[in-house]
From TrEMBL:
Domain of life according to the entry: Bacteria
The DUF3048 domain, residue ranges: 62-203, 229-339
Region: Disordered, residue numbers: 26-65
Swiss-Prot/TrEMBL keywords: Signal
Residue ranges that the Swiss-Prot or TrEMBL entry lists as coiled coil: none
Name the record gives this protein: DUF3048 domain-containing protein
Keyword Signal assigned: yes
Species whose genome carries this gene: Sutcliffiella tianshenii
InterPro entries: DUF3048_C (IPR035328), DUF3048_N (IPR021416), YerB-like_sf (IPR023158)
Signal peptide span: 1-24
Amino acid sequence: MINRKVIQLIALMMILLIGCSSNNDSSPDASEVPVGESPSKETGSGQQEEKEIEEEKEIFPLTGTPGETAIDKRPFAVVINNDVKARPQSGLHKADIVYEVLAEGDITRLLAIFQSQVPPDSIGPVRSARSYFIDLAKGYDPIFVFHGWSPEAREKIEAGEVDGINGLTYDGTLFKRASFRVAPHNSYITHENIEKGSDRLGYSLAKAVPALIFHEKGDTPAGDETDYVKISYSKRAATHVEYSYEENENHYVRSSGGEKNIDLDTSEEIVAHNIFIVESDHQIVDDAGRREIDIISGGRAILIQNGVRREVEWKEDEGRILPYLNGSPVPFTPGKTWIQIVPDLSNVTY
């Protein structure tokens, strides 16, 4: 028979061995990891999560940056008054792309294209369309918003070249008159009413928008250092446009007539990350001083971005005016773009 003391000694040793094993094995094995999770090192896990979140953000086609709306939201293109009596305007700070083009005399009008950001509550003052505004808008297949038209513009719109909402038809309903300005400088519309009008007219509000080409993050375009540019549409100071570079923000702050451009409702500065200055042929075609502007043939242009400028060419590409160099497209810097169409690049100074 086994001695009782020996049996007790063996039992005591087994208890001690079990206790040591329990204390040393404090980490769970694979079977103890909750379903759907996997063991990972704590170091760098936060950075990995941030990277994954950033990769999930949708990059918007007209700015090359993350936006606030649905990626397939159909753009709005609004003809905006740029007379001195219409400044400061409402909504331009939210536009992805803005064209500035001469209308009658030395007064310019703006075509503002909205897509990536939630549109502002108020947009305007809205002004009448010209035929070349329709041609400029068509490259983005937008809802085209205007208040009145020239005979040539009316012909294009009634032929269905764009899906239009006309303030002449909806004055006092979709379009509202502001009491603090006089006609024709006081017609405004909200993005909500643009959507209501689109629904009423049977226009789709969701469409795929072909993307512009943008520089990759960290790219540094070569060119001549440019922290200031002035565009003179005439000798009158009221028609002079200026952009001043802010290096910390990598954007240009816009001024007109010697005053910084701000949003009427929010006082937010109007800025551009790309200034694309395009020289095209202008011809006066009637006694009212209306023009035909060549936005098809291409020609000389200046592209200013990231604090530098360079001479490029412009080409019409599926309805869009875009920069080219040696036959290849030139990328934009991610952000907002202002396209200045001028009769002569000699009216631009740096």
